[in-house]
Amino acid sequence: MTLSLILACLWAILANVLAMIPSRTNHWRQAVFLVVIGVPILGYVTYQNGPWWGLVVLAAGMSVLRWPVIHAGRWLLQLLR
Predict the structure, then answer these.
(1) Residues 41-77: pLDDT tens digits?
(2) pTM of the predicted model, to two decimals?
(3) Are 25 and 71 in contact (CB under 8 A)?
(4) DSSP per-residue letters across the chain
(5) Is it the case that residue 26 has pLDDT exceeding 80?
(6) Closest-CA residue to 49 (of 58, 26, 21)
């Protein structure tokens, strides 16, 4: 297993640990933190393992951070109207 995939697995573990911590802000700060550190990891995975593994890691990250993705999609739809 390459370093980039190990980092992606550690990111997934961190995301699950952060989701278990109670939060008054509905975990938005944690989500922003995960996006900020997840994007470079995604780029590294894609660079080191190819675009198919990059898409797999992207799908995994989108499943963990589904609400930021849903809100971003709604925001984009409002911009296009």
Answers:
(1) 999 999 999 999 999 999 999 999 998 889 999 999 9
(2) 0.86
(3) no
(4) --HHHHHHHHHHHHHHHHHHS--TTTTHHHHHHHHHHHHHHHHHHHHHH-HHHHHHHHHHHHHHTHHHHHHHHHHHHHHH-
(5) no
(6) 58
